[in-house]
């Protein structure tokens, strides 16, 4: 049987998704369900003086209305930060309480205050309008740059500062800077983004009055974690009385990592009102309350020699946490950002200093790439600036500072097991016809257009591991992953994974792996995820971890199956287990034609009795059945890397940026399914390009989100994007048996600096801020024209 | 959503009779329904006019193109007759919103709504349109009054819009990157009787830019526009485009339009 790993197996998921048969949370309806509408703060910062529900309670169809008072009375806990980060001075980070329904104060527009349950959605809406909340409006802190100088939002959190974190050695950096020929300085704003999963958040809760079990169907990337938090911190119910199911989920991009207010409130309330509850976010609620991404202000400096060698790097960043610290909120701008800020380069000295601050805006958390896009943007922009100031070619300066030996000890934390950055950049250069750029630029100029080329080389640290290190860095849990592989007596296989697919195609990729390991046709393998009642506890999907951590747990569980199978086959074939080989789904006794298929062995494992001549196939000490599980905790992160090159053409009359060519060369180690990996790269690129050219979440001074709909928040569209030119190089990861590296975030990480480097290249080096909107580019073109005229 | 009475009018007379200051006609519903859902508008009566056959269809005579009020943007965009008589008008329709909007939204709804960023109003201005209602015919120049404001009475139904076929014309639009409405749109049309430059998106209401038209009357070339000063005062300013940028874009897109004529 040919290996399936490496082949373009069509997605098992496609049929149901493309024919509208996906089963999402909002497709679930439970008899006798009520509908929830949340009453949210219209103010960015206010004290709650009074919540008056008396009129609303009398409104038609209302079942109940609950407020922050009720939550507090029932001692239901709030939302939490999953990582404890320490400041440079050793002090602990400062986190405010984040109750599921606000009782005393609200801290961003959309912060929920009360909830109405009614027989119909319309009745819930009508009643919600009658809930009167009396607020004392306070001055909002909406500007990140001024947050530390503003009044404290949360009691006891001075300067609105959660922590002031340092990674690296300031003195070493100072020494390196003292020796430099030149210091390159760069100030950047990494713009705030809204994840915009296609499926808005939702939950459907079913409280079973007989078993007293709560079932929470929800749009989560990690149902087990949601259950854990809801149980251990929310106190909603013990874990054994709480089942969390995340069925088909229409995209997450990090925004569905968090457990949210609505899931806690509705789970708690369902038990209280003894009715099922359905809540589905409207798009506006998604804009206002899904966790947002990025939002950094960074000052970076790079010390270089005149011939372009890097000596040292400084990264001073202020990161916006929004109103509250959430699950990955505190780690995203620290351990996921700081270490990666020195990029793919040998950097003799470096530090990253991050001040994370609270503002009266939606909480900021992991968004596709989480910290690594911000890091890559910083280093790749400053490297380009260095090339420009030194009069060097952007490829030459990168090549000059690449490591060529692996494992490569990266400056701040990471020990990168494998890679070949030179090969990747060379391949990208060739595929992009880098040498033909000058001719294309001339041609653009002959039409009155400007053309620029941008290069980025990146690495990513994903599949965060191993657990002991992760916990040492402040994480509240370990980041292993679980799998269970079950053979049915009749030979089909069910694979249970603790990771979760919300667009990543695990049903296909994981089935390919299991099919190869077990020699079973892929049609006979089902992958089950997303239900705490079905599989073992698992950590979910984010940070490109599913395959490198979860996939390997499946491989290991399959290997255990094969080992047990060998023992059973040996007994059946009257040989010793050492004589039995397993290949292509068959157990074969060496140097003989005696064999049993894995299906026969599975069947036998469930029938260990003695009848007529059939003797028990089970060796002494083995139990019946063919079911194995595994928990995999990798020895390290995985480190995909690559180089991207793009070209833009700018119309100086209007400032319109046309993305003309985009080449991505990525090293994801072994590729299990190129079709799926290319899809992941395409989607990632679209989001990275979105950040560079279109997307920008903006709050006004009073803390109102002024980009709270698609009329104002610009998403990239298919017709904004060129055909992507994708290439791959492969150095296998040495930290897992498949040699795989994560691929889900790479496109997002690399695309933003690649596009901006191209735009700034077209503008002759003139810095502009993200995103490069037409008006900004037009202004830069005008200034460029002026200064050219002066020079002439 | 607030409750309302739904009526499906069988003819224009009935539609008009049902109408009041607290009603809306339902054509494509692309403006009315979202506004109601967002709580920005509410009506006692919704009067569906889509079943009135008389209101839909395209007729071309020697001098004019007449488009029924409930004709959808997609129908104008794909009409062979419009493409032949006034290709720029078909192109304008093709550039409205997205396929879903074009398959529902109507020309009558668009001009009755008179969104400052809508495309069709500029065509009405540039193509000397006459707006025919159930009780009068109105010149485009008089029809558009201000932001979301026209001279229509609440019981008045637009039946058709009649455009003069120009010698040459072009509509050039800088779309809002998010909504794809016009940040600015410039419709240049050269008629035997004179030149019009309909500008949308720039100010609170569509207008005929007399300075640009004047310059083009002397010399119909994009270089003639170079000398025209366009002030940003009175121009819209928002997160997508400042008034200064808009003023400059009116000029840049007027040049593009002239070049494309
Ligand atoms: C996402 C989106 C993008 C869009 N992009 C663009 C764009 O790029 N450019 C653009 O120009 N437009 C755009 N539109 C608007 C769209 O083109 C519709 O034309 C417009 O919404 C109104 O037309 P309608 O037929 O849907 O009218 P309706 O919503 O049905 O009615 C709107 C108003 O017009 C009145 N009305 C309708 N028909 C008549 C009539 N015959 N007589 C008198 N009054 C009448 C109604 O009473 C109502 O007040 C967009 C809309 C959406 C939702």
CATH topology of the domain at 168-260 in chain B: Enolase-like, domain 1
Radius of gyration of chain B: 18 Å
Looking at the structure, what is the overall shape of chain B? Answer: globular
Please mark out the parts of chain B with pLDDT under 50 across 5 or more consecutive residues, or reply none: none
Helix content of chain B: 25-40%
How do the strands of the widest beta sheet of chain A line up side by side? 3-5-1-12-9-10-11
Question: How would you describe the overall organization of this protein?
Answer:
The complex is a heterodimer of chains A (792) and B (261). Chain A has 792 residues and is α+β, with helices and mostly antiparallel strands. Chain A contains 19 helices and 28 strands. The model of chain A has no long low-confidence stretch (mean pLDDT 96). Chain B is of the alpha+beta class. Chain B has helices at residues 12-18, 32-37, 73-78, 80-85, 87-94, 99-102, 107-113, 120-126, 140-143, 210-218, 222-226, 243-260, and strands at 5-8, 23-26, 45-48, 58-60, 64-68, 130-133, 137-139, 144-146, 149-150, 158-164, 168-175, 182-191, 194-200, 207-208. Chain B starts with a strand and ends with a helix. The model of chain B has no long low-confidence stretch (mean pLDDT 96). At the A-B interface, helix 19 of A face helix 12 of B. The complex binds flavin-adenine dinucleotide (FAD).
Outline of the structure:
The complex is a heterodimer of chains A (792) and B (261). Chain A is of the alpha+beta class. Helix content of chain A is 28%, strand content 24%.
Key terms for this structure?
heterodimer, A: 792 residues, Aldehyde Oxidoreductase, domain 3, 7-stranded mixed beta sheet, 19 helices, globular, B: 261 residues, alpha+beta, Enolase-like, domain 1, 12 helices, binds flavin-adenine dinucleotide
């Amino acid at each position: 049987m040919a290996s399936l790993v490496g082949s373009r197996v069509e997605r098992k998921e496609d049929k149901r998704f493309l024919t509208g048969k996906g089963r999402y949370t909002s497709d679930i309806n439970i008899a006798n369900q009520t509908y929830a509408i949340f009453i949210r703060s219209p103010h960015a910062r206010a004290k709650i003086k009074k919540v008056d529900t008396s009129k609303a309670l009398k409104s038609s169809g209302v079942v109940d209305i609950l407020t922050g008072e009720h939550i507090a009375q029932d001692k239901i806990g709030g939302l939490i930060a999953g990582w404890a980060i320490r400041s440079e001075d050793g002090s602990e980070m400062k986190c405010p309480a984040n109750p599921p329904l606000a009782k005393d104060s609200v801290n961003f527009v959309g912060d929920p205050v009360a909830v109405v349950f009614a027989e119909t959605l319309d009745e819930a809406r009508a009643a919600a309008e009658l809930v009167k909340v009396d607020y004392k409006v306070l001055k909002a802190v909406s500007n990140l740059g001024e947050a530390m100088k503003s009044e404290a939002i949360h009691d006891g959190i001075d300067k609105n500062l959660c922590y002031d974190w340092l990674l690296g050695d300031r003195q070493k950096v100072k020494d390196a800077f003292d020796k430099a020929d030149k210091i390159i300085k760069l100030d950047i704003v990494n713009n705030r983004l809204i994840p915009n999963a296609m499926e808005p958040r939702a939950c459907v809760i079913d409280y079973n009055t007989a078993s007293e079990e709560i079932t929470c169907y929800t749009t989560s990337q990690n149902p087990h974690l949601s259950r854990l938090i809801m149980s251990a911190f929310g106190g909603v119910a013990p874990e054994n009385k709480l089942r969390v199911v995340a069925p088909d989920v229409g995209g997450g991009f990090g925004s569905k990592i968090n457990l949210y207010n609505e899931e806690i409130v509705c789970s708690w309330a369902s038990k209280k009102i003894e009715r099922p509850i359905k809540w589905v976010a409207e798009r506006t609620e998604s804009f206002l309350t899904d966790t947002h991404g990025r939002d950094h202000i960074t000052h970076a400096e790079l010390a270089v020699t005149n011939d372009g060698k890097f000596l040292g790097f400084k990264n001073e960043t202020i990161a916006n946490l929004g109103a509250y610290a959430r699950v990955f909120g505190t780690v995203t701008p620290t351990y996921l950002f700081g270490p990666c800020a020195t990029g793919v380069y040998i950097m003799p000295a470096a530090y990253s200093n991050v001040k994370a601050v609270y503002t009266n805006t939606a909480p900021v958390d992991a968004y596709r790439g989480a910290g690594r896009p911000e890091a890559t943007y910083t280093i790749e922009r400053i490297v380009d600036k260095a090339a420009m100031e030194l009069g060097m070619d952007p490829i030459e300066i990168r090549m000059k500072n690449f490591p060529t030996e692996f494992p490569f000890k990266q400056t701040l934390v990471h020990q990168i097991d494998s890679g070949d950055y030179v090969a990747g950049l060379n391949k990208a250069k060739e595929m992009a016809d880098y040498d033909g750029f000058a001719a294309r630029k001339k041609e653009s100029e002959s039409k009155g257009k400007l053309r620029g080329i941008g290069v980025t080389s990146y690495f990513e640290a994903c599949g965060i591991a191993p657990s002991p290190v992760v916990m040492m860095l402040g994480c509240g849990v370990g980041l292993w992953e679980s799998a269970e592989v079950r053979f049915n007596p009749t030979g089909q296989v069910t694979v249970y994974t603790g990771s979760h697919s919300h667009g990543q195609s695990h049903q296909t990729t994981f089935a390919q792996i299991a099919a190869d390991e077990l020699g079973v046709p892929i049609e006979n393998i089902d992958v089950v995820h997303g239900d705490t009642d079905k599989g073992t506890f698992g950590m979910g999907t984010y940070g490109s971890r599913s395959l490198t951590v979860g996939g390997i747990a499946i491989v290991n569980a399959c290997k255990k199956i094969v080992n047990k199978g060998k023992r059973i086959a040996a007994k059946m074939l009257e040989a010793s287990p050492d004589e039995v080989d397993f290949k292509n789904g068959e157990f074969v006794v060496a140097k003989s034609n005696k064999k049993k298929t894995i299906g026969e062995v599975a069947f036998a494992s469930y029938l260990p009795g003695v009848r007529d001549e059939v003797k028990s196939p089970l060796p002494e000490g083995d139990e019946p059945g063919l079911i194995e599980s595994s928990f995999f905790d990798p020895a390290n992160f995985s480190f995909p890397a690559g180089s991207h090159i793009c070209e833009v053409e700018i119309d100086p009359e209007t400032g319109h940026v046309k993305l003309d060519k985009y080449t991505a060369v990525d090293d994801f180690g072994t590729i299990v399914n190129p079709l799926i990996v290319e899809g992941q790269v395409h989607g990632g690129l679209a989001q990275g390009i979105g950040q560079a050219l279109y997307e920008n979440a903006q709050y006004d001074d009073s803390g109102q989100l002024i980009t709270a709909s698609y009329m104002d928040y610009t998403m990239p569209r298919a017709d904004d994007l060129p055909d992507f030119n994708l290439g791959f190089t492969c150095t296998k990861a040495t930290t897992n048996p498949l040699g795989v590296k994560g691929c889900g975030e790479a496109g997002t990480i690399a695309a933003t600096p690649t596009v901006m480097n191209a735009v700034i290249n077209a503008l002759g080096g003139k810095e502009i801020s993200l995103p490069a909107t037409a008006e900004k580019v037009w202004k830069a073109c005008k200034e460029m024209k002026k200064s050219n005229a002066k020079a002439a | 959503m607030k409750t309302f009475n739904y009526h499906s009018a069988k003819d224009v007379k009935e539609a008009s009779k049902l109408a009041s200051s607290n009603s809306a006609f339902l054509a494509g519903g692309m403006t009315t329904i979202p506004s109601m859902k967002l709580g920005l508008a509410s009506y006692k009566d919704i009067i569906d006019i889509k079943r009135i056959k008389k209101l839909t269809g395209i007729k071309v005579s020697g001098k004019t193109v007449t488009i029924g009020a409930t004709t959808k943007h997609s129908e104008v965009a794909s009409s062979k007759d419009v493409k032949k008589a006034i290709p720029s008008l078909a192109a304008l329709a093709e550039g409205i919103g997205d396929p879903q909007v074009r398959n529902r939204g109507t020309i009558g709804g668009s001009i009755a709504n008179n969104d400052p960023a809508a495309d069709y109003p500029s065509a009405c201005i540039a193509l000397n349109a006459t707006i025919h209602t159930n009780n009068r015919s109105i010149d485009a120049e008089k029809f558009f009054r201000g932001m979301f404001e026209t001279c229509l009475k609440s019981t008045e139904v637009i039946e058709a819009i009649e455009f003069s076929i120009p010698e040459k014309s072009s509509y050039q639009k800088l779309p809002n990157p998010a909504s794809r409405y016009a940040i600015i749109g410039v419709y240049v049309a050269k008629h035997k009787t004179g030149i019009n430059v309909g500008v949308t998106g720039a100010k609170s209401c569509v207008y005929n830019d007399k300075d640009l038209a004047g310059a083009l009357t002397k010399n119909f070339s994009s270089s003639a526009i170079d000398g025209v000063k366009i002030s940003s005062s009175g121009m819209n300013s928002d997160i997508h485009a400042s008034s200064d940028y808009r003023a400059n874009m009116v000029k840049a897109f007027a040049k593009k339009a002239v070049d494309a004529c």
